From TrEMBL:
This is Exocyst complex component. Keywords: Coiled coil, Exocytosis, Transport. GO terms for cellular component: exocyst; plasma membrane. It comes from Pelusios castaneus. InterPro entries: EXOC6/Sec15 (IPR007225), EXOC6/Sec15_C (IPR046361), EXOC6/Sec15_C_dom1 (IPR042045), EXOC6_Sec15_N (IPR048359), EXOC6PINT-1/Sec15/Tip20_C_dom2 (IPR042044). The lineage of its organism: Eukaryota, Metazoa, Chordata, Craniata, Vertebrata.
Amino acid sequence: MRRGGGMAELESLETAAEHERILREIESTDTACIGPTLRSVYDGEEHGRFMEKLEARIRNHDREIEKMCNFHYQGFVDSITELLKVRGEAQKLKNQVTDTNRKLQSEGKELVIAMEELKQCRLQQRNISATVDNLTLCLPVLEMYSKLREQMKSKRHYPALKTLEHLEHVYLPRVSHYRFCKIMVDNIPKLREEIKDVSMSDLKDFLESIRKHSDKIGETAMKQAQQQRNLDNIVSQHPRIGGGKKYKKDVCASSDLEVKNSSPMSEQDSGILDVEDEDDDEEMTGAQDLVDFSPVYRCLHIYSVLGARETFENYYRKQRRKQARLVLQPPSNMHETLDGYRKYFNQIVGFFVVEDHILHTTQGLVNRAYIDELWEMALSKTIAALRTHSSYCSDPNLALDLKNLIVLFADTLQGYGFPVNQLFDMLLEIRDQYSEILLKKWSGVFRNILDSDNYSPIPVANEELYMKIVGQFPFQDTELEKQPFPKKFPFSEFVPKVYNQIKEFIYACLKFSEDLHLSSTEIDDMIRKSTNLLLTRMLSNCLQNVIKRRNTGLTELVQIIINTTHLEKSCKFLEEFITNITNVHPDTVHTSKLYGTTTFKDARHAAEEEIYTNLNQKIDQFLQLADYDWMAVEPGSKASDYLVDLIAFLRSTFAVFTHLPGKVAQTACMSACKHLSTSLTQLLLEAEVRQLTLGALQQFNLDVEECEQFARSGPVPGFQGDTLQLAFIDLRQLLDLFIQWDWSTYLADYGQPTCKYLRVNPTTALTLLEKMKDTSRKNNVFAQFRKNERDKQKLIDAVAKQLRSLINSHHL
């Protein structure tokens, strides 16, 4: 119990100590933090005792407060007494102040009203002054903005851009705190874009306009070049040397003038000036003067100011490249008329006139490299187009006009400083095409001349006609001049016509060579080569066709030989003619020679061969009329009718050969006689003639004698002795052998140079003998019973046997 009592006492002491501690904390701790302290009281189980402890502590503090109040109470009472006295005095003072205030308010009421009015006036004055000052700052801004809108409305975009720049950097910063200024500032980029868009629209209109009017610009430029060239030709007969430079100088002068008159402030917006009345001007203006370039200049300056010059340059060059491709695309039917080519060239010239002017009047919008690139493209496409379309040309006049147009085109662009050597090189190609066209045309001309010719010597009835022919063709014949009128030239009408057409051809070739900047030697060489082609190809073919034509008779062939002989002699005059018009002596090293002599010789040889062939064909036709009775016992009294007609034909034919060269007539006569001899021999030996009598052979001999008589009569002069008779020598010896029946001599002398029947071939003799042998056997059924017949048959068999022996020995 004692121990238990001790424990309780100990716990009571601890609780009392804890409560004391809590009370001290409550006294010393801020009221806001007293919560945790009180929680510790309620967490324990002795809060009742704590409350008792708290009540005891409150009572202690009340006793201490009471003691303190009792100590100071007398001073408090004295202070209250004095305060009551002061309250009375304060009330009096308050009444006096209230009365004074009332009097003051009453007296100063009018003053307050006047002061209030003064205050309002001063405020208004200050506001008015501030407003005037602000308006002074704002009015220039508004005026500049109004000016800007007016300039944009009137499409003065470059001045508008300058105004906008001044407004942005000078005026708006002064009034930047105003709301309307902020609106303006926000609107400035839009205005710039609007100016850019409008100026770009003007540029597009300009580009479209010059695209449509390029042909008019080019036409004017080419007319100027033509006038300049005509002027140069008038001033001097020498090839113009400085014409291109002078023309370029004029162009540059016009360009400088254009720069002065086309300032960025210009208000002219149309790309092309009124060009309809230009033709009425006595003095043609420059091609570039037809164009108002101010839209380009304005747009360039605007984009330069806006810092977008590179964008503008790229756009301009891109669009012009596109236009260049369109301009360089030729129409599909350009080759049909010269106007098609002219319009094509005008557009190209107009395009490059504009670009050249832009190059010289702007700094950097286009440069020389860009122009050269465009020109190279244009040159290649133009040359390709001309090659294609000129190949369709078949009219020499159109080709010549095209050449003149290309030369003018090249001279025009050369005047603006563009290299045109490739165009002149291409003209040399077109010159070859032109030569081909001329050759085709003159082939038709020659064909018509040859077809319409009567192939008869030209008759002249008086001196006037004679001199006219001599004036057309270089012919001199003293004998003919001495003859009285009427008389005849040896050649037919196609000789002077062909000669003059060759000269016309040379003139046509010369026309194409003009203004090609070729030397006299080159022109001479070109003319000679073309003339050689005309002679060797066209004229030669035409002559050959006439010669080979079926209906060409011997008279025509003879006349062709005579005509070609005279044309051959005229070749030297053609040489002189070319020399006179080119001033190049034919002895020059590089000068080509005319092949006319060869051409006419070949034609003459062909005509001669055709004469020989025709004569032989005529002979064959007569021989087809031969009707021999190979079984005749006795010959007739005269030559066969067909042969008499044949000889008469040959006599009349060779009579026409009087104007032929001697060798030609002799060769024709010899050829005819040889062919007649050969044909008669074949007729005698042909397989269809199986039997042959001596009487038929004697009739055949009469025909051969008629031929020999013809040969001896000298149908063509110039044969020596019996030369012409030699054509029948083979047939003569064969007939003599059989008619004279001289086999002993033939067989004995065979193979010797002095043999009487040297030209008789054993095979031929055997063939003919076999025909007579069969006839002897079948001539009479009783022939074998007659001694003479039997002896003759034995002789024939013996001769045949010996002939076979000769033939076999000859083959071995």
